[in-house]
Write a structure and sequence with these properties.
This protein is mainly alpha-helical. It has a domain of about 140 residues: Clp, N-terminal domain (Double Clp-N motif), CATH 1.10.1780.10. The chain is about 55% helix and about 5% strand. It has 13 helices and 4 strands. The chain has a two-stranded parallel ribbon. Strands 3-4 form a two-stranded antiparallel sheet. The protein is globular and about 55 Å long. It starts with 7 loop residues before the first helix and ends in a 13-residue tail after the last helix. The relative contact order is 0.15.
């Protein structure tokens, strides 16, 4: 099979689109951010398929052989950071009543645009009620600001007899599924507004994240606001590659910006990603793939509830 390398031209175009100016150092910063996202996505994809292999009953021995490592090395690297020590991935948590109200508000916002619900609509919905609304209020995010930014950033596409048009990414349903899995993996019996905000803010490819970036909201700040509200994942241990001793305070996760010295950190050339962000990205990829298998498209007019 012929290998297809990453499209360097497309990456360079993305870097120039992200950078606010042509200053070489600004472009370098943008390049580092894009490289981190690409590296994170690759790591998350591997994590996703390791979790899928375990869910089908494959042993750590078989997985380790395919990865070219021992059974013990495979288990140590993946089990703690994905929470898949032995059995299948946790079932998605049910929706809390306040989150249901927020999803109804998000659906109404999408209906007003005759659009398939996107993650920017979820951001509007989260301003309706709940813990996430309080966090967004503290960060200066309002409905008017979200609507204004969305109007500037997203150009409606499509719009025919087959169904609603698409404004933004149209991935609201997939993201809600990711938040339900995230809540379950944190040992929570219900998915709440704070879980959905966490997933929205830390997904670098979402329309909601693009809106937050436009409003000057740092995803690391969102995560910091939510850390005390969301318990840590119930893990048997904190194993995995860590950054070197003595430099925890100066080396941050390239994804969320955290510098927690007690958090496992996966490292690569110029990239550092904390275990929580890897696990979250795996959840997002897993939910997206399950959505594709179920045959639901972005333009099918599906509703967030019922």
């Amino acid at each position: 099979m012929d290998e297809k390398p990453l499209d360097r031209t497309a990456l360079i175009a993305t870097i120039h689109e992200r950078a606010p100016s042509d200053d070489p150092l600004v472009l370098l910063d943008a390049a580092l951010a894009v490289a981190a996202e690409v590296g994170e996505a690759a790591e998350a994809a591997v994590d996703h398929y390791v979790a899928a292999a375990r869910a089908t009953g494959l042993s750590w021995t078989a997985i380790g052989e395919r990865l070219g490592v021992s059974k013990q090395a495979a288990r140590q690297k993946f089990s703690s950071r994905l929470g898949i020590s032995g059995g299948p991935v946790a079932e998605p948590a049910p929706l809390a009543p306040r989150l249901i109200s927020c999803l109804e508000a998000a659906q109404a916002a999408a209906d007003a645009e005759d659009s398939v619900p996107g993650t920017q609509h979820l951001l509007l919905g989260l301003l309706h009620v709940g813990v996430a609304a309080n966090v967004l209020d503290r960060l200066g995010v309002t409905r008017d600001k979200v609507r204004e930014a969305s109007g500037r950033l997203f150009e409606p596409t499509g719009g025919d007899a087959a169904g609603p048009r698409l404004v933004g990414d149209g991935e609201a349903e997939t993201t809600v599924a990711g938040a339900r899995r995230f809540a379950a993996n944190r040992g929570q019996n219900l998915a709440r507004t704070e879980h959905l905000l966490f997933v929205l803010a830390l997904d670098p490819g979402s329309s909601a994240r693009r809106v937050l970036n436009d409003l000057g909201v740092d995803p690391a700040r969102v995560k910091k606001e939510l850390n005390d509200l969301i318990p840590p994942p119930p893990r048997p241990g904190r194993r995995g590659r860590r950054i070197g001793k003595g430099d925890h305070g100066t080396r941050a996760c390239s994804f969320c910006g955290c510098t927690d010295p007690h958090r496992a950190m996966v490292t690569g050339p110029g990239i550092r990603i904390c275990g929580e962000c890897v696990a979250l990205s795996a959840d997002i990829l897993r939910s997206s793939q399950q959505q594709d298998k179920a045959g639901s498209g972005r333009r099918d007019g599906g509703r967030l509830l019922g």
